[in-house]
Amino acid sequence: MSIGQQELSGYPNAVVGGILPRHSRVTYDADGKAVLAGADERGVGTVAEKDVAPGLEPVAIRPITDPGVHKMIADGPIPAGAKIVPAANGRVAVAGAGATNVIGIRACSAESYSVVQPGDYVGVFPVFE
């Protein structure tokens, strides 16, 4: 990641290390490139603006510590208010009983009480447990 380099969005830029769908959770590989975060890692943030692939660089990363609701990609059905955990391929899933790796809570509004389906974007309030 180029320190201090910024996209018009105001988020830090990173070199792309693989195909990254918009709103997927990302982390950095050993070479410092942005790659999809796995089920065992919180990730450093989400792809901020568009789907990207190597050669379409750089990518803007919205830091996980940025305040407000973050859009992420659901790995399965997620009801409003559910606790969220990391899932494979940069996605998120509903936390099981006793989950210790909670990264957020599904946001909801008067217009969005329905269950989110796999592949849909879901609004997540990050939490740090």
What can you see in these coordinates?
The chain is mostly beta strands. The protein has a domain at 70-126. 0% of the residues lie in helices and 29% in strands. The protein is built from no helices and 10 strands. It has strands at 13-14, 25-28, 34-36, 45-47, 59-63, 70-73, 83-86, 92-94, 104-106, 121-126. A 5-stranded antiparallel sheet has the order 1-5-4-2-3, with no helix packed on it. A 5-stranded antiparallel sheet has the order 6-10-9-7-8, with no helix packed on it. It is globular. The protein starts with 12 loop residues before the first strand and ends with a strand. The model is unreliable at 1-8 (pLDDT under 50).
Helix percentage: under 10%
Strand percentage, roughly? Answer: 25-35%
Average pLDDT for all residues: 82
User: Given the C-alpha coordinates, what overall shape results?
Assistant: globular
User: Sheet bearing the most strands, described?
Assistant: 5 strands, antiparallel
Runs in which pLDDT lies below 50 for 5 or more consecutive residues are 1-8
Radius of gyration: 14 Å
Give the neighbour order of strands across the main sheet. 1-5-4-2-3
Number of helices: 0
Structural class assignment: mainly beta
Order of SSEs, N→C? EEEEEEEEEE
By DSSP, the count of extended strands is 10
Distance linking N and C termini? 27 Å
